[in-house]
Amino acid sequence: MNQNQFNFEINAKIPGALGRAGVIHTPHGDIQTPAFVVVGTYSKVRFLPPHQFNNIGAQAMISNGFHLSRISKDIEQSGGLSKYSEYNCPTITDSGGFQVMSFGSGLGKVVSMDKRNIAREQFKAENKNRLARVTDEGVYFKTNEAATEKLFTPEYSMEFQHKIGADIIMAFDELTNIGDSREYNEKALNRTYEWGVRCLLKHQKLTREHVEKPYQALFGVLQGAHYQDLREKAARDLGALNFDGYGLGGAFEKEHLSNILFWCNRILPESKPRHLLGLSKPDDIFVGVENGCDTFDCVAPTREARHGKVYTLDGDINLRNAEFRDDSSPLFEGCQCPTCKSSYTREEIRKLLKNEGGLKTSEQIMADKKLAMELITAHNVYFIIKLTHQIRQSIFKKKFFDFRDEWLKRYYE
Ligand SMILES: [Zn+2]
């Protein structure tokens, strides 16, 4: 086993922009880019059974490192995440930083910004409602069920990500919130750099200790909010380190997205792949590709499917709406996904979803709902994957901008 198992080749570029089409080679297979990576938070994509994975053209899966850390030993013993997921595809895990910090911010509470070494008792008194606090050492956090604080460090993130065994793992970073000050973002960025260095050292050590295992690529994660100089600093500093690729992170506001990606990607080494974390709206994907991002992930296509939202080229529809009650067309006419190629109509899937159509047992209601969610999930994920595939083709044909303008006009108008 050696490092040559992971590499990235660029096959075509968008003239006058940073975008490219290429292939990421990993020990568990290739990812043709630009690519949408499906989200399997707990190692499986909700309502996407393994037999459908290839049917919808999926190439790779990203899982939540934090949630899987609790079962990392089991995953290791089963042969790693690719096998454990039953998708047998290239896999990615995130560092867990986002989840740890969301114990503070995600619950409507603030992440403690204090860098000082507050004594535990004092911390408890001052931060009764805060469940996470960030220090240079790492993040102290409490879960609702745990009475005591736990320390989450960059080294720990590397340890469990190595056990989980995804092909691409992410360095531990500090995600800031949209409301954070410039001053705080500077501090957080420095910390993210220091944590990146610590991750790299730990990763290199673990790699040397386990040469028998397939090589795992470590991506550095860039933060810096919407500040140009901070984003550029992150790109220069992390770009100079020996990461295998880069993750672009942050709570992106739409108006800043293209600038942020441009600032980072024109500085980062061109030869390394870049993953945009957490965005999959079609206009965001186009902006991401144009500005040099290679892979994307987001829970939206699967989460929205569970709420009855169906993607179509003419804009999204909600199948729960009454207008689809007698609609005998497929989810989207001409779509080649497994659902639309089957005989299921909008009317039928709506009935399954809404528990209509006569008296049913509770088991039957559950089974029908599950089926409806599987049918819509396959369609939505296929829809986004197909979009990235068509973008890839448009780059090869030197027609990216024409394709973008035509596609977005139809979808958003
Ligand atoms: Zn379809």
From TrEMBL:
The keyword tRNA processing applies. Keywords: Glycosyltransferase, Transferase, tRNA processing. Its EC number is 2.4.2.29. InterPro entries: ArchSynthase1/Queuine_TRR, TGT, TGT-like_sf, tRNA_ribo_trans-like. Residues 19-412 form the tRNA-guanine(15) transglycosylase-like domain. One of its GO terms (cellular component) is cytoplasm. It holds the Pfam family TGT. The keyword Lipid metabolism does not apply. It is an enzyme of class 2 (transferase). SUPFAM superfamilies: tRNA-guanine transglycosylase. Gene3D superfamilies: Queuine tRNA-ribosyltransferase-like. One of its GO terms (molecular function) is tRNA-guanosine(34) queuine transglycosylase activity. GO terms for biological process: tRNA wobble guanine modification. This is tRNA-guanine transglycosylase. It comes from Methanobrevibacter arboriphilus JCM 13429 = DSM 1125. The gene is tgt.
